[in-house]
Design brief:
By secondary structure, the chain is of the alpha+beta class. It is 32% helix and 21% strand. The structure holds 6-O-phosphono-alpha-D-fructofuranose. 6-O-phosphono-alpha-D-fructofuranose (P6P) binds next to helix 6.
Length: 337
């Protein structure tokens, strides 16, 4: 392309997904409509998060606003926006949110064939100090015509149709996979469009960074403790890995995806299943990692093979560069023998 052509050949996320359509001859544009409503939610949250600091300053967030209404917390507000956007898309039948104990069953009049599992604002405890936070989502489909039940949600992550996250940081970046690779889009606020900026993301095969909350070291099991020890005091004379831990999953995973390395939220004596939730944290991030050439492991099995029994079930997770995850798998296998 000439420079001129590139500047005018805006590849928006909608156009990108429509171009994918020939691979799904059966699709009637339903997925594109669903995705557009997810994108709408992300745009809203992006603007709300960016104003949050200001809103707090002028006494809106968390207190009563000028109309005297109690200003909703950002994660509750974000959840309301996503639920309303997804229901109004007319393409969903069940919604599972980190914010809601029970699943939302969409009314028959607006029901479609997609299930969306999502965390509307993961890491929201970091808003006040300006650390990047994000929305994480995964999409399943149900067989046509069946009355949807909660069993339809408890599917292994490998059956997801698509997964992604939107990170609200210095820029607003949406990373998406529909099962044929991973692509990143950055919001151009002047257009209000997500533009393709990171085509065909591939995670480096091996990385120089490990990402874990070292504060939990006292409670780690053997293989995790051995692996982290190896990162800090490599026996083969190689240089130690760097530690980078932001404490916001979307930010830690985004860095891992682009720079390589490994992100760990292991089990520990206090929380035998770790902290992160299977449906809307572990599965979407594991789906993206595999699509980008990396892998994701629970300490016992491939993360995407897990079959959840409960909506808000947790699992330990080790994800990132293929070779780095292989190393911790070997340590768990050795312990298992
Ligand atoms: P810890 C944020 O609260 C979160 O859910 C994830 O975004 C993040 O990876 C994790 O918890 C951080 O947990 O125990 O290290 O503070």
């Amino acid at each position: 392309h000439s420079a001129e052509a590139q500047r005018t050949d805006l590849m928006t996320i909608t156009r990108f997904v429509l171009n994918e359509q020939p691979k799904h001859p059966e699709s009637r544009g339903d997925f594109t409509i669903l995705l557009n409503h997810i994108v709408l939610g992300c745009k809203f949250v992006c603007s709300a998060v960016n104003k949050a600091g200001l809103a707090k300053l002028i006494g809106l967030a968390g207190e009563t606003n000028v109309q005297g209404e109690e200003q909703k917390k950002l994660d509750v507000l974000s959840n309301d926006v996503f639920i309303k956007a997804l229901v109004s898309s007319g393409r969903t039948c069940i919604l599972v949110s980190e914010e809601d104990e029970e699943a939302t069953f969409v009314d028959k009049s607006l029901r479609g064939r997609y299930i969306v599992v999502f965390d509307p604002l993961d890491g929201s405890s970091n808003i006040d100090c300006g650390v990047s936070i994000g929305t994480i989502f995964g999409i399943y489909t149900v067989k046509e015509g069946q009355e949807p039940t909660i069993e339809d949600v408890l599917q292994p992550g490998k059956d997801m149709l698509a997964a992604g996250y939107c990170m609200y940081g210095s820029s607003c970046t949406l990373v998406l996979s529909t099962g044929s690779g991973v692509n990143g889009f950055t919001l151009d606020p002047s257009l209000g469009e997500f533009i393709l900026t990171h085509p065909d993301i591939k995670i480096p095969k091996k990385g120089k960074i490990y990402s874990v909350n070292e504060g939990n070291a006292k409670n780690w099991d053997g293989p995790t403790a051995k692996y982290v020890e190896k990162c800090k005091f490599p026996k083969d004379g190689s240089s130690p890995k760097s530690l980078r831990y932001i404490g916001s999953m979307v930010a830690d995973v985004h860095r891992t995806l682009l720079y390589g390395g490994i992100f760990l939220y292991p089990a520990d004596k206090k929380s035998p299943n770790g902290k992160l939730r299977v449906l809307y944290e572990v599965f979407p991030m594991s789906f993206l990692m595999e699509q980008a050439g990396g892998q994701a492991f629970t300490g016992k099995q491939r993360a995407l093979d897990l079959v959840p029994k409960k909506l808000h079930e947790r699992s330990p997770i080790f994800l990132g560069s293929y070779d780095d995850v292989e190393e911790i798998k070997a340590l768990y296998a050795a312990e298992g023998n």
